[in-house]
Every structure is written in C-alpha cells, then in structure tokens.
Automatic annotation (TrEMBL):
The lineage of its organism: Bacteria, Bacillati, Bacillota, Bacilli, Bacillales. PROSITE patterns: PROKAR_LIPOPROTEIN. Its main location: membrane. It is found in: Membrane. Residues 24-198 form the Spore germination protein N-terminal domain. GO terms for cellular component: membrane. Belongs to the GerABKC lipoprotein family. This is Uncharacterized protein.
C-alpha cells in the first residue's frame, strides 16, 4: 500500500515539471520566412525578408491568380536583429524562421565582413542550420529576393533546389550551410568560399508576376562562380573552372561533365564524371610544406563528335591519358592562379597539414603567406566505365 502511495506521489510530482507547449505559435499568428537578404546602407544593415503568402500557396479555390505567392518586407537597423524587430510595425504576424531556405549577402556586406551580420543567425534557436548562403553578385540582396520564378511560386525554394541540383550534377557551384560556414570562419587552415548569384535580364521586370508569363522569362537568377573569403571578408571571385577545381580538391564532386579533344582527329569527346574521390597528402620537404592531391575518377563517354572507333586498340588508353591531363591542368592552373591573385587557402591545405604535422603547424605565424608559396602536385587517375551502345560516333556511321 505504501509503495503504491509513493508511486502516485512521484507521478504527481512529475506532472509539475511538464511545461506543456510554452513556446507554441498558432499557424494563423505566424509569417513563415523562407528568404533573408542582408545589405549595407552606410553604417546600418538593410534586412529584407521573404515570407510566404498562405492564400496563394494553399489549395483553396477562389484565390486571386494575379497575387504573388510571397511578400517581402525591408527595414534598416544598426544590427540585423534590430532591423528584424523593426519589421513588427510592417509585418502583420510573428516572423517564424524555422523554414528559412536562403540567406543572400550583398558584396558590400561581404567586403566589410560577414561575421557580425551572421552572428544572430548562429544564435537564434528558432532557426535550423540547413539553409544555404550565397553572395549577390553585382546586385543588392533585396533585388535578388524579389525576382519571381516561373517554376516555383516561392523564389527562395527555387534558389535552394537550383543550388542543390547544380551542386550535385555540375560541380561549378557549392552549397554552404551555417555549420560549414562557421567551421570555415573559425579555422586557421581553411578559408570560406560561397557561391555567387546574379540577376540576368531586366531587374525592373523580375519582381512582377508578368515575369512568369513568358516561355523565356525576361529576368532570371543564375549562379555564377564562387566568392573567396579571407577570415570573414570577401577577397575575390572564382570563375567556373576555378570552382570546379576547388570542388575536386575538396572532394565535393558528385557528378559533372567535361570534354577532351579527340585523339588523332578534329572534334571533341564529352566525358560524364559519375564518381570522384580525392585524397590530400601533406609532406615536409626540407622543412617546407608540400602536397600531393590524388584524384580518382570514374566516368562514362556521353558524346563523340569525331572519327574515333573505340574498338581499336589503344583508343581507350589515349582517351584516359587526355582526360587525366585535362583535369590535372585544370586543378594545377587554378591553384596557381588562386595563390597569386587571391592568396588565401580556400582548399584546406593548411587544415590537412595541421592534422598531420601539429608541431610544424604551430611554428607557422601566417598560413596564408605560406600558402602562396607551397608546391602542390596533382595526380589524376581516371577509369572509363561505359562507352554507350555504339563504338563509333553517329555522324561517322551515317557517312560510311
């Protein structure tokens, strides 16, 4: 009897510890934020948010088809959270950030340093860490957020899926979420890099629903290269080839496409990379850091536009040799270019050297200065998996 009484008292005491849904927000009382843009106006931040218009994305009938599926609000403040708080006089509902997909940072903010601008994002418990960061190239972050997409009624979702897809199948972009960004900003042996986004076409039409009524939209958002950072400050742009080389070195290539000249004839052969793996080996040579970058690639032949017969002996070996040299030159030339023009280690050589040689690492005062002079040897080993159902080009077959 006493045991039952004690159990009852214990269970009742536990009920007082249950707080219930103390932080709940009803759906009718919140605005779902999917995009956030940060610009600089003098010494103040101009913050733009993109929220979902529930009446236009719901399945209810009778809604206006001319209304936008999203609504943007802008406000300025000395800090990002102050600007967001000021929006309460404009936004009719509580701003809810758990579904945030994209954060766009202007070049101006990036030049001044992004650490202060993103501090609030790293502390806010309502935010997840899976949203992506991009840099607005030759435009304001607010302008990027206002471009309406014809494929997805919510532009931030369109930007997110476009970057995710491009990162997996083209490798000339890179998806940077909050966790990876904070790690890169806090590391001594690796600098951050962030994909750039630019507006193609007429900016004045991009924020109108009329932009969605054309087969070929007047205004588009396009990912273009990557921005390199030194600590938290933007220092320069990487072009398409530099971005591909960066992804190869960082072991971030999933699939991509390239071409090589045809062996012994005019034209090109398109190679489809289906798998890639990179291992970085640091060495101390005469007490100086050197690196071997070993890249193993599996690829298919996607297209042949010349007179090549794959059944002949030596042709596959020639294709492999040309492909290996093409990627080796791509990576080596890009690293040399970044060492001379940008001078910050976006590849992570310093991080790899730190892990293998901690004592030598602690004797280095400024790794970026050392990075400018290190020797990097690139080795590519490709293997051809599939050549398709025919051994000659279609053009060659039709001419015979």
């Amino acid at each position: 009897m006493k045991q039952r009484l004690l159990s009852s008292v214990f269970l009742l005491s536990l009920m007082f510890l249950l707080s219930g849904c103390w932080s709940r927000h009803e759906l009718n009382d919140i605005s779902i934020v999917v995009g956030l843009g940060i610009d600089k106006v003098g010494e103040r931040y101009k913050v733009t948010i993109q929220t979902v218009n529930p009446s236009q994305v719901s399945a209810k009938k009778g809604t206006s088809t001319n209304a936008s599926a999203v609504i943007t609000y802008e406000e300025t403040g000395m800090t990002v959270p102050e600007a967001l708080s000021r929006m309460s006089v404009k936004a009719p509902r509580f701003l809810h950030f758990s579904h945030l997909r994209m954060v766009i940072i202007s070049e101006d903010v990036a030049h001044h340093g992004i650490s202060k601008a993103i501090d609030y994002l790293s502390r806010n418990l309502d935010m997840r860490t899976d949203f992506y960061f991009v840099v607005a190239r030759q435009s304001k972050a607010s302008e990027v957020l206002k471009v309406i997409s014809s494929m997805d009624p919510i532009p931030a979702n369109n930007m997110y899926t476009k970057l995710d897809t491009s990162d997996k199948y083209w490798s000339a972009t890179g998806s940077m979420n909050l966790n990876y960004l904070l790690q890169a900003l806090g590391a001594r042996g690796k600098s951050a890099s962030m994909t750039g986004i630019e507006i193609i076409g007429d900016k004045n039409i991009g924020d109108q629903t009329a932009n969605t009524q054309f087969v070929e939209p007047i205004t588009l958002l396009k990912y273009a290269g990557m921005g390199a950072f030194k600590k938290d400050r933007f220092v320069g742009w990487l072009d398409e080839n530099d971005t591909k080389a960066l992804n190869y070195v960082q072991n971030s290539v999933y699939q991509t496409t390239g071409f090589i000249p045809c062996p012994g004839s005019k034209g090109n052969i398109t190679m489809q990379v289906i798998r890639s793996n990179t291992v970085m080996h640091p060495h101390l040579v005469n007490e100086l850091p050197e690196f071997d970058v070993n890249v193993r690639i599996e690829q298919d032949i996607a297209d042949i536009e010349c007179k090549v017969d794959l059944s002949k002996a030596g042709i596959v070996a020639d294709i492999k040799k040309l492909s290996d040299h093409k990627i080796e030159d791509l990576i080596s030339e890009s690293i040399d270019k970044i060492q001379k023009s940008i001078g910050t280690d976006i590849y992570g050589f310093g991080d790899a050297f730190h892990r293998k040689y901690p004592k030598a690492w602690h004797q280095i005062k400024d790794w970026d200065e050392v990075f400018k002079t290190i020797k990097v040897h690139v080795h590519v080993d490709s293997s051809l998996r599939r050549v398709g159902t025919i051994l000659q080009s279609v053009d060659q077959i039709t001419r015979e």
